[in-house]
Amino acid sequence: MYALPPVLAAVATCACVAATAGAQKTAAPATHPAVRGALESIRTDNPWTLDQQASICAIPAPPFKESVRAAEYKHRLEALGLRNVRIDSVGNVIGQRPGTVGDTTVVLAAHLDTVFPEGTDVAVKREGTIMHGPGISDDCRGLAVVEAVVKALNTAHIPTRHNVLFVGTVGEEGPGDLRGVRHLFQKELAGKINYFISVDGAGLGITSRAVGSHRYRVTFRGPGGHSFGAFGMPNPIHALGRAIAKIADVQVPSTPKTTFNVGVIHGGTSVNSISADGSMDVDLRSESPDALNALDAKVQAAIRAALAEENARWPQSRVRLTVTVDTTGIRPAGAQSDSAHIVRVALNAAQTLGFPTSTSASSTDSNIAMSMGIPAITIDGGGSGHGAHSLGEWYDDTDRGYLGPQWALLIVTSLAGLPK
Questions:
Q1: pLDDT value at position 192?
Q2: What b/e string do you get for 351-374 counting C-beta neighbours within 10 Å, with b at 16 or more?
Q3: What's the predicted TM-score (pTM) here?
Q4: What is the dihedral of CA 126, 132, 134, 138, to 10 degrees?
Q5: Which domains, and CATH codes, for the chain?
């Protein structure tokens, strides 16, 4: 059986769980014999977990094309004994582990998609404890952790008072705009989720606050013309330059951290042509909804001012530019105190397992729940990793990578509770 570190045995009854969402509480299960057995099985089954991580990562899951990986993940959750495993209308994989009471639902999720386009070589190469491959940490690690928790719960025959759903979401990465988790909270499981835990990437940290983002493609348009023969008309690329310069001069607060970036620019056909269009992709972020909205207003004003100035620069021209601002992604910000029950459960579970952790803000699947006031966190999946969103991404399981799935199991069982 799994023995807690002696110095931590006294804190093994740390976190509490609501028997209903906010009512009577039961002690955390860290010292429960079956839970201790499940923790030990995660440690001994660690090679299996790593095999799951590598093999699921070898299945491509480019943006909006996660279906092949989803089908395989559904098969795996079924084989692990979950009930009513299904793929919903947007592509999320959902498996159920019913509780004995069933009036509260806890979700443990990881995302299926990657940032890599179709045709990317996603083969995983192993070198000792290190695995190399696109998406191997983000989020093949999370998917493997979810599987490991299911396997450990069922191997140890651990019942929970409340329902636990295990989910592989689609659309977490940039262009997906959280479409999978939006669907969960707004349609598929609307009003039915009480706690949401996402596992995303490597390490042992907690995302307890949601960084919101507004993303736009801004396009200035005109008829274009010859750089010499048509000179004297407003130029979309010049207007774009004016807008970028104005955005670069925007002042933002350091607290709450608020940021802006022009990440991509497009336009032009040749060096001697006045382009017919010029566009930029803009990313605005903040932990605070108010600060994000204030920044958005400043950027929108900068765009309008740039358009007006470029048109005014050429008063004799009968040509006028136009501008369109297309929304490419909106992720809501969400504030959640580190004294929130779900955060304290995660902190106490980490203490029980004997490792330090800290809270931070980020943009993850938990954004949607946090923005709706539903208790949510995103945790790392253990081990260490580097190069997320690059072809050089790697994951190192080190000598205690199993702490990630152990942590997830303790959080889930603490929130879902054990029968009295």
A1: 96
A2: bbbeeebebebbbbbbbbbbbeeb
A3: 0.88
A4: 100
A5: 6-210+335-416 (3.40.630.10), 212-331 (3.30.70.360)
